[in-house]
Design a protein that fits this description.
The chain has 597 residues and is mainly alpha-helical. The protein contains 25 helices and 7 strands. It has 3 domains: 156 residues, Butyryl-CoA Dehydrogenase, subunit A, domain 3 (Up-down Bundle); 202 residues, no CATH class; 194 residues, no CATH class.
Length: 597
C-alpha cells in the first residue's frame, strides 16, 4: 500500500504553520516587509557603527530582522518538507534562495564593519547596561574576526550564496523527486518501496525475507543515481574548501572546527575512540542479536531488526504524549509548559505521507513555535525520537526566552546533548516502571538500538567517512563515485569487523543522509550523547543540582563555548573520560540483557 497524499491526513496530526502566517498573502506581505527592513538597515547603519548610539540602535534593529528572517524562512521551507508535490510549497522554498541572497547582500557590511572596530570599544560596549544584551553576539564577532573578509567580498559571497551552496537543495530534489525504487515481492505479495517506507517500515521489520528483499530494491535504486549524488556532494566539499582557503585556512576541517569552537584533537578523539573502543561493544550487540533471532550471523540488512521475537507493541500518539509528559516532569514547570504547548498548539507533524522528508527534526522559530517533524510508526523507537526532538524544542525555547535572538546558537558540538539527554531520561523512566524480565530486556535492547546505534554508530560512521573525504580534499586528491563508495566500505569493515556480513549496496549508505551538507555535523551526535548520557542519568535519578545546572545551560545558548556548557552541567569533555564512561554504560546495558535472559 502506497503512502497517503498530504491532503488525506488527519489535520490534528499535522503541524500548524498558521501560527506563523494565516495564509499565503500574509506570508508574501512578510517577505516584502523583510526586504524593506534590510534595505533600510543598510541605508541607516552602513559606515556609522563606530558611534555608540548608532551601534545600539543597529543591534536592536538587527534583532528584529533576525526574528523576521526566522519566521519567513521557516514558513517558506517547512511546508515543502512535508509535501513536495504542492507547487506553492515548492515556489516558496525556491523563492527563499533568491530572498536570502538579497538579505545577505544587504547585511554583509555588518560583520566586516564590526570586526574593524576597536576591540576595547566593543568589549566596553558589551559590558555596559545598554550593550550587555548583545554581549554574546559581539563576543562571537570578535572570535570569528580572523575569518571575516572585506565588506565587498562578504557582500559578493552573500549574493552568490544560494548558487554556491545549492547542493543540499539538489540532494533533496534527487532524494524525494527523482529517486524511485522497484516494487518487490515477498511470499507472493507485492510491496512498494521508498525512502520513508524502507527506513520507517522495512529495514526494521521482523520478517527476514522482507528485510532482504527491500534492501535489494532500495540499494538498486540508490545505485542508479550514485554518480549524480557523488558529483553533487563533491561539488559541495570543493566549494567549502575554496571558501576555507579564502578565509585563511589550509584545511576545510580546521575551518569548520574553528566555527564550532572545537579543537582538532577533540574532533579526532571522538571519532577514533568510538571506532576503537565502542565498535567492540556494538559487535557484541550484533552477536547477541543473532543469537536471539537464531541466526548464525546478522548482516547490515538485519542489524535494525527487533531484538525480541515477540510482536512489537504499538503506542498511540495519545499514549506517547502521556509517557513524555510524565517523563519530563522532573525538569520542572517551565520545561513542562514547553512540552504541553508542543502538543496543544500542534507543533508536531506525525504521519508519513508521499514526499515527506525522512527521519525527524526540530526547527525552532525565533519568538515562535518549535516545529517537530516525525515519521510516526507507533513503535517505541519513535517515542524516543519524539523525546529527542522535544529536547531540541526545550533547549531552543529556553534559550530564546533568555538571550537575544542575535546571540549565536550553542556550538554544533553541544547541540545534540539536550536531545540525547532526553532519550536517556526517557529510557530510565520506562525502566523504572513495573516490568517483567522479558519486557525489561526488550526495552534495554530497544534503547541501545535506537539511541546508541543512531547517534554513536549511524552518525559516527558518517563522521568517519566524512573525515576520509575531507582529508583527501585537503590533500588535493582526485575523488569520484568509486572513491566515496570505497571510503564508506572501509569504514563499515573497520567498525564491524567480522561481527556481521556487509551486504552488497552498503557502500552506498553515504547517499542516505543530508548531514554531509551541514559541515561537520555527523560527529557531533556522539559528542552530544556523551554529554547526554552523563547528564541524563543524573536527571533521571532526580539529582536536583544537575537539573538546576542543566536548565541554566539550556538557557545560555551560545553565550558559552561548547566545553564550558558541558563543564557547567558537570561533564568534562577535555579528555576521553566522559566518552569512555558512556561506552562503559552501553556495555553494562548488554550485561543486563544477558543477565535477564
Amino acid at each position: 500500500m502506497s503512502l497517503p497524499l498530504r491532503q488525506e491526513l488527519p489535520l490534528a496530526e499535522t503541524w500548524d504553520l498558521s501560527l506563523l502566517y494565516q495564509d499565503q498573502a500574509a506570508y508574501e506581505a512578510a517577505v516584502e516587509g523583510l526586504k524593506k527592513q534590510v534595505t533600510e538597515f543598510e541605508a541607516n547603519y552602513a559606515g556609522t557603527l563606530g558611534q555608540a548610539q548608532q551601534l545600539e540602535k543597529a543591534l536592536a534593529d538587527y534583532e528584529a530582522i533576525q526574528v523576521a528572517i526566522s519566521w519567513v524562512s521557516h514558513y517558506g521551507s517547512l511546508a515543502y518538507e512535508t509535501d513536495k508535490l504542492d507547487a506553492q510549497n515548492e515556489a516558496n522554498a525556491v523563492g527563499l534562495d533568491q530572498l536570502f541572497e538579497l538579505v545577505g547582500a544587504k547585511l554583509a557590511f555588518l560583520a566586516p564593519e564590526l570586526s574593524a572596530l576597536d576591540e576595547a570599544y566593543l568589549r566596553e560596549f558589551s559590558q555596559s547596561d545598554k550593550g550587555k544584551r548583545y554581549a554574546g553576539y559581539l563576543n562571537e564577532v570578535l572570535r570569528l574576526k580572523p575569518s571575516v573578509l572585506s565588506k565587498e567580498v562578504e557582500e559578493l559571497l552573500s549574493s552568490f550564496q544560494s548558487s554556491l551552496y545549492n547542493q543540499y537543495s539538489l540532494y533533496g530534489t534527487l532524494k524525494f523527486q527523482d529517486l524511485t525504487f522497484d516494487d518487490f515481492q515477498v511470499s507472493g505479495k507485492t510491496y512498494p518501496n521508498s525512502f520513508v517506507k524502507f527506513e520507517g517500515d522495512y529495514e526494521g521489520a521482523s520478517d527476514y525475507e522482507l528485510r532482504h528483499a527491500s534492501w535489494k530494491s532500495f540499494h538498486d535504486g540508490l545505485a542508479r543515481y550514485q554518480h549524480t549524488a557523488a558529483a553533487n556532494y563533491l561539488n559541495y566539499v570543493q566549494t567549502s574548501k575554496k571558501e576555507a582557503k579564502l578565509r585563511g585556512f589550509d584545511s576545510i576541517i580546521d575551518y569548520e572546527l574553528f566555527k564550532q569552537d572545537v579543537s582538532r584533537e577533540a574532533y579526532n578523539r571522538q571519532i577514533d575512540v568510538i571506532m576503537s573502543e565502542f565498535a567492540p561493544v556494538m559487535r557484541r550487540y550484533a552477536r547477541l542479536l543473532a543469537a536471539e533471532q537464531g541466526l548464525d550471523k546478522v548482516s547490515l540488512a538485519d542489524i535494525k531488526m527487533p531484538f525480541s521475537k515477540e510482536p512489537a507493541e504499538t503506542i498511540s500518539i495519545e499514549a506517547s504524549r502521556a509517557m513524555v509528559e510524565d517523563t519530563f516532569k522532573v525538569l520542572g514547570p517551565d520545561y513542562q509548559e514547553i512540552v504541553r504547548r508542543a502538543f496543544d498548539e500542534r507543533w508536531i507533524d506525525y504521519p508519513m505521507n508521499q514526499t515527506k522528508s525522512t527521519g525527524g527534526f526540530c526547527a525552532t522559530v525565533a519568538d515562535g513555535p518549535s516545529y517537530i517533524l516525525l515519521n510516526w510508526t507507533g513503535l517505541l523507537s519513535e517515542v524516543l525520537v519524539l523525546a529527542h526532538e522535544l529536547g531540541h524544542a526545550g533547549h531552543f525555547q529556553l534559550t530564546n526566552q533568555h538571550v537575544s535572538p542575535i546571540t549565536p546558537e550553542a556550538s554544533l558540538y553541544f547541540i545534540e546533548a539536550p536531545s540525547t539527554a532526553n532519550e536517556v531520561i526517557m529510557c530510565q523512566y520506562l525502566l523504572s516502571q513495573p516490568l517483567e524480565a522479558a519486557q525489561k530486556r526488550t526495552l534495554i535492547a530497544e534503547f541501545i538500538a535506537r539511541t546508541y546505534f543512531h547517534n554513536m554508530v549511524t552518525h559516527l560512521l558518517e563522521a568517519h567517512f566524512q573525515r576520509k573525504v575531507l582529508e583527501a580534499v585537503d590533500r588535493d586528491e582526485f575523488l569520484n563515485t568509486d572513491s566515496l563508495n570505497q571510503f564508506f566500505l572501509e569504514t563499515l569493515k573497520e567498525f564491524w569487523g567480522d561481527a556481521l556480513e556487509i551486504n552488497p549496496g552498503a557502500e552506498l549508505t553515504w547517499m542516505r543522509q543530508p548531514h554531509y551538507f551541514m559541515a561537520l555535523y555527523p560527529y557531533t551526535y556522539s559528542a552530544g550523547l556523551t554529554i547526554g548520557t552523563a547528564v541524563g542519568q543524573k536527571i533521571a535519578a532526580g539529582d536536583q543540582t544537575t537539573i538546576d545546572k542543566w536548565l541554566e545551560v539550556l538557557k545560555a545558548g551560545g553565550t558559552m563555548g561548547p566545553l564550558a556548557l558541558a563543564e557547567h552541567a558537570g561533564v568534562s569533555m577535555a579528555d576521553a573520560g566522559a566518552l569512555r564512561s558512556a561506552i562503559g554504560y552501553v556495555d553494562h546495558l548488554l550485561d543486563q540483557i544477558e543477565a535477564l535472559a
